[in-house]
Each structure stands twice: as C-alpha cells, then as structure tokens.
Write a structure and sequence with these properties.
Strand content: under 5%
Number of helices: 1
Order of helices and strands: H
Structural class: mainly alpha
Number of strands: 0
Oligomer: single chain
Distance between the termini: 194 Å
Radius of gyration: 57 Å
Helix content: over 70%
Length: 135
Amino acid sequence: MTQDVIRDPLGVKLDITNYADLIDQNQIVKWLEDAHHQREEYSAKEKENLNLRLNDLLEERESCISELKTKDEDVIAAQIAVQQLQERDQLLSAQNEMLKTNKTNLMRKIAELDDMLKKLIGKQITQHLSQLLRI
C-alpha cells in the first residue's frame, strides 16, 4: 500500500510533468510558427522593398540613357554647326581675297584713268594754248 501511495503521487507528478512538457512543446511550436510567419512577412516586405528599389534604379538608368542620347544628339548638332561655320568661314575668306584682288585691280585702273585724264587735259590745254597763240 505504501508503494501505491507513493506511486500515485509519482504518477500524478509524471502526468503533470508530461502535461507541462506538452504545453511547453505546444508553446515552442507556436513560437516557431510565429517566428516563421514573421520571417515570411519580413522576407516579403524585404522583397517588395528590393523590387521597388530595383524599379527606381531601372527608371534612373533609363533616364540616364535618355539624357546621354540627348547629349549625344546635341554634340552631333554642335559638330555639324561647327563644320558649317568653318565652311562658311572658308567661303567668306575666299570671297574676301577675291574682293581684295578686285579692289587692287580697280585701284590700278583708276590710277591709269587718272594718268590718261591728266594727259588728255594736258593735251587740251596745249591745243587750246596753241589755238590762242595762232590767233
């Protein structure tokens, strides 16, 4: 009987210990499930944040590419404008040289005409004086 009395509380104690272990195991399982759920939520949020950041970076990349294309077009337009200005400068320089040559030729012609005029005036004066002297 003593053994039964001793076994009875031991059985109750074992049942309580088993119950406590079972509750602890259930609590641990619940904690693990909660931790797993929180980790999944965190991973999902982190993935969403990374996707948003990736989209931002892709948009920024496209913007940079567009800006580079615009700048390339501006550079090409500037190069074309420079080339056109150089060609115009060459044309104007050639025209300027032609005008200088024409001016020199015209100045020479004016000098020749002035000489001819002086000779003609001199002849006319001489003829006029001759006529006056004859009279």
